[in-house]
Amino acid sequence: WHASYSSCSNHPANAIALALPFWFRLMQCLRVYWETRETKNLWNALKYSTAFPLIYVGYLKKHAVYDDEDDDEKVYYLHLLAAAAAVQSTFCFVWDVHMDWGLFRQSNLGGRYTNEVGNACCGAKPVVMAMREP
């Protein structure tokens, strides 16, 4: 088991398999932008493109050859990985909260919840509807 695991997890196809879903969504967002010319689709494409540096740096970190005496290269890859993960996670979080959930939108500030917020949260629509009724 351990021999099979190490050979599969070290194969370059592993990084490609990790990147493929993000690639397909990126291409889908660009195609929708091409058809609609709505800039939100470019921002969505940017969200998916932030996954590629994270995957690539993770691949480099896993396959780097380190000197036993020098830990600077390990720290360098760790810092790159942390930076790529921070950028990707932050962008995805902000996108999900603002665009998908509709929070902090101008139309939602200072008023009642819109249907979009109720629909975005699983099971929250009955609660939102109950809060609206006096």
TrEMBL record:
Q: Name one GO cellular component term.
A: cytoplasm
Q: Can you tell me where the transmembrane regions are?
A: 76-95
Alphabetically ordered keywords of this record: Membrane, Transmembrane, Transmembrane helix
Record domain EXS: where: 5-134
Q: Where in the cell is it found?
A: Membrane
Highest taxon listed in the record's lineage: Eukaryota
One Pfam family matching this protein: EXS
How does the protein associate with the membrane? Multi-pass membrane protein
Which InterPro entries does this entry report, sorted A to Z? EXS_C
Where does this chain mainly localize? membrane
PANTHER family, A to Z: PROTEIN ERD1 HOMOLOG 2, XENOTROPIC AND POLYTROPIC RETROVIRUS RECEPTOR 1-RELATED
Q: What is the name of this protein?
A: EXS domain-containing protein
Q: Which organism is it from?
A: Haptolina brevifila
